Protein backbone atom coordinates (compact mmCIF):
# COMPACT_ATOMS: atom_id res chain seq x y z
CA UNK A 1 0.00 0.00 0.00
CA UNK A 2 1.46 3.34 -1.04
CA UNK A 3 1.45 6.03 1.62
CA UNK A 4 0.70 9.70 1.21
CA UNK A 5 0.87 12.79 3.36
CA UNK A 6 -2.37 13.60 5.11
CA UNK A 7 -3.44 17.22 4.70
CA UNK A 8 -4.41 18.23 8.26
CA UNK A 9 -6.17 21.37 7.02
CA UNK A 10 -8.34 19.30 4.69
CA UNK A 11 -9.25 16.89 7.50
CA UNK A 12 -10.19 19.85 9.73
CA UNK A 13 -12.32 21.37 6.94
CA UNK A 14 -14.10 18.06 6.42
CA UNK A 15 -14.71 17.71 10.18
CA UNK A 16 -16.11 21.26 10.29
CA UNK A 17 -18.38 20.41 7.35
CA UNK A 18 -19.67 17.36 9.26
CA UNK A 19 -20.52 19.53 12.26
CA UNK A 20 -22.20 22.20 10.11
CA UNK A 21 -24.35 19.77 8.15
CA UNK A 22 -25.08 17.20 10.84
CA UNK A 23 -23.82 14.39 8.58
CA UNK A 24 -22.19 11.37 10.19
CA UNK A 25 -19.47 10.85 7.59
CA UNK A 26 -17.88 12.48 4.57
CA UNK A 27 -15.40 11.19 2.04
CA UNK A 28 -13.03 13.15 -0.21
CA UNK A 29 -11.22 11.57 -3.15
CA UNK A 30 -8.63 13.06 -5.43
CA UNK A 31 -6.83 10.89 -7.93
CA UNK A 32 -5.54 7.78 -6.13
CA UNK A 33 -6.05 9.27 -2.67
CA UNK A 34 -9.17 9.02 -0.51
CA UNK A 35 -9.87 10.48 2.94
CA UNK A 36 -12.97 9.56 4.97
CA UNK A 37 -13.91 11.42 8.15
CA UNK A 38 -16.70 10.15 10.40
CA UNK A 39 -18.39 11.71 13.39
CA UNK A 40 -18.77 9.70 16.56
CA UNK A 41 -22.17 8.28 17.33
CA UNK A 42 -23.17 6.52 20.53
CA UNK A 43 -20.18 4.53 21.83
CA UNK A 44 -18.00 5.29 18.79
CA UNK A 45 -14.87 7.34 18.26
CA UNK A 46 -13.83 9.54 15.35
CA UNK A 47 -12.08 7.59 12.62
CA UNK A 48 -9.98 9.09 9.87
CA UNK A 49 -9.08 6.65 7.14
CA UNK A 50 -6.68 7.24 4.31
CA UNK A 51 -6.12 4.64 1.64
CA UNK A 52 -5.29 4.61 -2.05
CA UNK A 53 -8.20 3.89 -4.35
CA UNK A 54 -7.81 0.61 -6.21
CA UNK A 55 -9.49 0.91 -9.60
CA UNK A 56 -13.16 1.84 -9.44
CA UNK A 57 -14.24 -0.65 -6.80
CA UNK A 58 -17.39 0.21 -4.83
CA UNK A 59 -16.94 1.33 -1.24
CA UNK A 60 -18.25 -1.27 1.20
CA UNK A 61 -20.48 -0.04 3.98
CA UNK A 62 -20.98 -1.51 7.40
CA UNK A 63 -24.72 -1.84 7.92
CA UNK A 64 -26.55 -2.79 11.10
CA UNK A 65 -28.31 -6.15 11.15
CA UNK A 66 -31.30 -6.17 8.84
CA UNK A 67 -34.47 -4.72 10.27
CA UNK A 68 -37.87 -5.68 8.89
CA UNK A 69 -38.05 -2.94 6.16
CA UNK A 70 -34.45 -3.52 5.06
CA UNK A 71 -35.10 -7.21 4.49
CA UNK A 72 -38.09 -6.53 2.23
CA UNK A 73 -37.28 -7.39 -1.41
CA UNK A 74 -38.86 -4.12 -2.55
CA UNK A 75 -36.84 -1.90 -0.19
CA UNK A 76 -35.40 1.16 -1.94
CA UNK A 77 -32.32 2.35 -0.07
CA UNK A 78 -30.44 5.63 -0.12
CA UNK A 79 -27.36 5.54 -2.35
CA UNK A 80 -25.80 8.42 -0.42
CA UNK A 81 -25.84 10.57 2.70
CA UNK A 82 -27.98 13.67 2.27
CA UNK A 83 -31.41 15.20 2.75
CA UNK A 84 -34.47 13.48 1.28
CA UNK A 85 -37.14 15.56 -0.41
CA UNK A 86 -40.46 13.98 -1.34
CA UNK A 87 -41.48 16.73 -3.81
CA UNK A 88 -39.74 18.78 -6.50
CA UNK A 89 -40.30 22.00 -4.54
CA UNK A 90 -41.32 22.94 -0.98
CA UNK A 91 -45.06 22.42 -0.54
CA UNK A 92 -45.32 20.72 -3.94
CA UNK A 93 -47.08 17.50 -4.75
CA UNK A 94 -45.03 14.47 -3.61
CA UNK A 95 -43.47 12.36 -6.34
CA UNK A 96 -45.18 9.28 -4.87
CA UNK A 97 -47.55 8.37 -2.05
CA UNK A 98 -48.45 4.99 -0.55
CA UNK A 99 -50.74 3.19 -2.98
CA UNK A 100 -49.30 4.86 -6.10
CA UNK A 101 -48.27 2.58 -8.95
CA UNK A 102 -44.77 3.32 -10.26
CA UNK A 103 -42.80 2.27 -13.32
CA UNK A 104 -39.16 1.20 -13.24
CA UNK A 105 -37.01 4.32 -13.58
CA UNK A 106 -39.69 6.71 -12.32
CA UNK A 107 -38.42 9.37 -9.87
CA UNK A 108 -39.74 8.62 -6.39
CA UNK A 109 -37.85 11.33 -4.43
CA UNK A 110 -34.77 13.54 -4.47
CA UNK A 111 -31.74 13.42 -2.20
CA UNK A 112 -29.72 16.58 -1.86
CA UNK A 113 -26.03 15.99 -1.22
CA UNK A 114 -23.46 18.78 -1.31
CA UNK A 115 -26.04 21.13 -2.90
CA UNK A 116 -26.68 18.69 -5.76
CA UNK A 117 -30.21 17.35 -6.25
CA UNK A 118 -30.02 13.61 -7.05
CA UNK A 119 -33.21 11.94 -8.32
CA UNK A 120 -33.92 8.57 -6.73
CA UNK A 121 -35.59 6.30 -9.26
CA UNK A 122 -37.75 3.24 -8.74
CA UNK A 123 -35.58 0.16 -9.43
CA UNK A 124 -38.65 -1.79 -10.52
CA UNK A 125 -42.32 -1.38 -11.28
CA UNK A 126 -44.86 -1.90 -8.52
CA UNK A 127 -47.01 -0.22 -5.91
CA UNK A 128 -45.64 2.07 -3.19
CA UNK A 129 -46.41 0.19 0.02
CA UNK A 130 -44.80 2.61 2.44
CA UNK A 131 -42.70 5.79 2.44
CA UNK A 132 -40.34 5.52 5.42
CA UNK A 133 -38.85 9.03 5.39
CA UNK A 134 -40.41 12.44 5.75
CA UNK A 135 -39.80 15.52 3.63
CA UNK A 136 -36.47 17.28 4.34
CA UNK A 137 -35.28 14.40 6.55
CA UNK A 138 -31.53 13.67 6.71
CA UNK A 139 -30.78 10.16 5.45
CA UNK A 140 -27.77 7.87 5.67
CA UNK A 141 -26.22 5.63 3.03
CA UNK A 142 -28.18 2.37 2.88
CA UNK A 143 -31.17 3.68 4.84
CA UNK A 144 -34.49 2.32 3.57
CA UNK A 145 -36.44 5.16 1.95
CA UNK A 146 -39.56 3.34 0.76
CA UNK A 147 -40.99 -0.04 -0.06
CA UNK A 148 -42.24 -1.06 -3.51
CA UNK A 149 -44.44 -4.15 -3.67
Automatic annotation (TrEMBL):
Pathway(s) annotated for this protein in UniProt: Lipid metabolism; fatty acid biosynthesis
Top-level lineage group: Bacteria
SUPFAM superfamilies the UniProt entry points to: Single hybrid motif
Lipoyl-binding domain segment(s): 73-149
Keyword Lipid metabolism: yes
InterPro entries (UniProt xref): AcCoA_biotinCC, Biotin_BS, Biotin_Carboxyl_Carrier/Decarb, Biotin_lipoyl, Single_hybrid_motif
Keyword Cell membrane among record annotations: no
Keywords of the record: Biotin, Fatty acid biosynthesis, Fatty acid metabolism, Lipid biosynthesis, Lipid metabolism
Role summary: This protein is a component of the acetyl coenzyme A carboxylase complex; first, biotin carboxylase catalyzes the carboxylation of the carrier protein and then the transcarboxylase transfers the carboxyl group to form malonyl-CoA.
Name used for this protein in its record: Biotin carboxyl carrier protein of acetyl-CoA carboxylase
Species: Azospirillum picis
Source species taxonomy: Bacteria, Pseudomonadati, Pseudomonadota, Alphaproteobacteria, Rhodospirillales
Amino acid sequence: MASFDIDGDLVRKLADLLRETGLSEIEFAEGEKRIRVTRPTAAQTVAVQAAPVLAAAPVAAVVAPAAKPASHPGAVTSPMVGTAYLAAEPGGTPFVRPGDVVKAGQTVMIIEAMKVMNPIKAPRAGTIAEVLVSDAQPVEFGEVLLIIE
